[in-house]
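User: Could you go from structure to sequence for me? I need the amino acid at each position, not a summary. Structure tokens:
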């Protein structure tokens, strides 16, 4: 019988995969030898492999541009990065190397853009799509951008009152967009998104307010489907409703020329993940074109605001197993050296699943385990890989000793694991660098790139959070 961990993985999935391979029973992620990284930096460790960000941006752009060319579509495609998925400077520096535009969601995002502009990374004629509910500070910051000569700021009106607030704050001409309040998926807890303006209010709003105002030009219609861009009847139905509204609006508003379809390209969260991005881009472009042709309206420029897709697949978190606890005949706990609740809060809050793999010991037998985090919270665990509905890892020896117990123990005798494609939202949702549950410190974080010869280059971005930094925040 084949009982090794490597057999389990290669019999359950197509393996190796584009970003995962195993050599000498050790895992490589995007060609990064993870055990070498662990030997150098230890665990727990967050890693971000920057080239993956550019690769994903370029792929998406190619899919949309090819789809546009194939359909003989008359509009252009614009890739925006949704900053809230990761605000780190190293992320934005990589993102902006690709000449993309930015979507913002709060007042401080605007300060971030100003810094990027001062650093010469962001041009004043790039698009800045200002989404989200806008408190006065956000409105004022948007007005300041416009006053400072940013020529393509597009505040997206989230509710009717926001227009008057903008009117008061903005001096000079300004392009705007309207967010359509999308219908939620049928199984969701409510029918209509709280974000945006109801379908039937949009045309009257334009007629009664925007059209009469000389300062504002309505350029963009925006919608975002919470559950992402999926090949489902629900998604296509929502898209077609939005394009129909676009056409109705375009007939009375000649300035309107852009449709923003939001974020929502999915990322690989399981090894059996299959998603035909190329087909989806083609289908989106062709559906928009068909509806516009039927309505006799020129096709809009298409904007996207991919967050997860831009950064999610660039990062991973590596942990070691501290010890194993058997709590009854069927439940075997591998305790990790950090906390899932604090390092991957979506795994706890919304049951988000990530790819989980052993980093070493692929030649060992496997066993089913529950993974436990270090906080005292009974919800700090991870026990369900998306495909197998359980977690299987190499067997832990009876006399297992972790690095924490004896730092001279050999790396190959310690069990290391990784959760992969964790680059979106986890730091901002988890309050990176702040107070963490049970004062569990934020792990060390390193950035990985490649030099001209294709050699891996690593750089420490942040050390493990210190007790001093936490006590300071707490007022001590
Ligand atoms: C308006 C808007 N655009 C884009 C995004 C990014 O979505 P994703 O990370 O799924 O690409 C979000 C996410 O919440 C959003 O609210």
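Assistant: Here is the amino acid at each position, in order:
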């Amino acid at each position: 019988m084949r009982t090794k961990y490597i057999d389990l993985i290669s019999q359950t999935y197509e393996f190796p995969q584009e970003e995962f391979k195993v050599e000498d029973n050790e895992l490589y992620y995007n060609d990064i030898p993870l055990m070498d990284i662990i030997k150098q930096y230890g665990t727990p460790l967050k890693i971000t492999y920057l080239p993956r960000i550019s690769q994903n941006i370029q792929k998406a752009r190619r899919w949309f541009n090819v789809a546009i060319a194939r359909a003989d579509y008359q509009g252009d495609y614009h890739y925006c990065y949704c900053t809230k998925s990761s605000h780190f400077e190293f992320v934005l520096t990589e993102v902006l190397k690709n000449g993309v535009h930015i979507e913002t969601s709060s007042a401080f995002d605007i300060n971030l853009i100003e810094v990027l502009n001062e650093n010469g990374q962001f041009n004043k004629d790039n698009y800045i799509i200002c989404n989200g509910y806008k408190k006065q500070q956000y409105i004022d910051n948007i007005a300041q951008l416009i006053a400072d000569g940013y020529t393509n700021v597009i505040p997206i009106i989230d509710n009717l009152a926001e227009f008057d607030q903008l009117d008061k704050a903005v001096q000079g001409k300004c392009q705007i967009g309207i967010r359509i309040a999308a219908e939620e998926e049928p199984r969701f807890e409510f029918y209509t998104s709280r974000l945006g303006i109801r379908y039937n209010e949009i045309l009257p709003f334009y007629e009664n307010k925007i059209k009469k105002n000389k300062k504002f030009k309505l350029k963009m219609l925006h919608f975002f489907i919470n559950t992402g861009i999926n090949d489902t009847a629900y998604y296509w139905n929502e898209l077609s409703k939005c394009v129909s509204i676009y056409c109705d609006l375009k007939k009375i508003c000649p300035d309107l020329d852009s449709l923003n379809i939001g974020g929502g390209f999915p990322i690989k969260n399981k090894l059996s993940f299959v998603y035909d991005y190329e087909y989806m881009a083609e289908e989106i472009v062709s559906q928009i074109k068909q509806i516009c042709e039927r309505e006799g309206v020129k096709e809009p420029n298409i904007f996207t605001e991919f967050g997860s897709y831009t950064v999610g697949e660039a990062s991973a978190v590596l942990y070691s197993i501290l010890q194993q606890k058997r709590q009854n005949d069927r439940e075997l706990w591998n305790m990790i050296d950090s906390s899932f609740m604090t390092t991957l809060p979506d795994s706890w809050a919304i049951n988000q699943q990530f790819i989980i793999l052993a980093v070493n010991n692929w030649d060992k037998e496997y066993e089913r385990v529950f993974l436990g985090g270090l906080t005292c919270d009974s919800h700090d665990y991870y026990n369900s890989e998306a495909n197998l509905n359980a977690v299987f890892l190499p067997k832990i020896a009876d006399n297992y000793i972790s690095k924490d117990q004896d730092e001279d123990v050999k790396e190959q005798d310690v069990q290391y694991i990784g959760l992969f494609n964790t680059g979106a939202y986890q730091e901002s949702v988890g309050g990176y660098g702040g107070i963490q549950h049970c004062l569990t410190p934020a792990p060390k974080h390193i950035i990985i790139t490649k030099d001209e010869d294709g050699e891996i280059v690593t750089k420490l971005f942040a050390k493990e959070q210190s007790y001093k930094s936490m006590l300071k925040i707490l007022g001590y």
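One structural detail worth keeping in mind: The CA atoms of residues 74 and 299 lie 6 Å apart.
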